[in-house]
Amino acid sequence: MPRVLYSRLQNDELRLLKVFCKKNRVSCRMKIFSLHSHPKYTALSHAWDDSGQFVSIPCNGKMINLSRELLAAFRAFRECPDLHTPVWIWVDSICINQDDDAEKDTQIGMMDRIYKGAEIFTTWTGAGETRTQESLSTLRDFAFHIGGCTPIRSVDIALSGHPQ
Predict the structure, then answer these.
(1) Dihedral class, residue 12 (left if φ above 0, else alpha if ψ from -120 to 50, else beta)
(2) How much is the pLDDT for 1?
């Protein structure tokens, strides 16, 4: 297995993940792309889990740790038609080397371009509680009626397997 998962990024480069979910097994592949020439990708924002509970998944032949919440997000995306097949994902907690302060500074400075370059932007706030679906529906309706925003259907689909 490779000893180093993160190679140094050049200016205007980012890492993207391709996530594979097969039954209960999750794995990923990470690759470096230019901000000016990259495949379509989804930018994922998620609540960082500070519980210290991590799971290991294979990535580029090495085991990486990710939070249980991020693993839950990857599994929920498997249920979304828009994200059903493996897609490229940018998620800061993995695509930025968290042990390299210089890289973190550079990548944080590029986040506006990283998010703008994404085809889809999605958030994961957790699996949800009993009234999560109802609250999201109300919020979506409010945004549509007040702000003229187009409703996003992926939220409904991602949460469809959770209790309502």
Answers:
(1) left
(2) 35
d(CA 122, CA 155) in angstroms, rounded, equals 9
Q: Give 35-85 pLDDT, tens digit per residue.
A: 999 999 989 888 766 677 788 899 998 998 888 888 888 877 766 555 555
pLDDT tier at 122, thresholds 50, 70, 90: confident
- Alpha-carbon distance of 19 to 22, in angstroms, equals 10
Q: Please determine, for residue 154, whether its predicted confidence score (pLDDT) is greater than 50.
A: no
Name the 3-class secondary structure at 118: coil
Please name the residues in contact with 68: beta carbons below 8 A apart, sequence gap of 6 or more: 49, 51, 53, 54, 55
User: How many angstroms separate the Cα of 91 from the Cα of each of 1, 17, 30, 121?
Assistant: 23, 8, 11, 10
The Cα–Cα gap between 164 and 160 comes to: 8
| Angstrom distance (rounded) from CA 74 to CA 33 | 21
Q: What's the rounded Cα separation, in Å, for the pair 68 and 58? A: 15
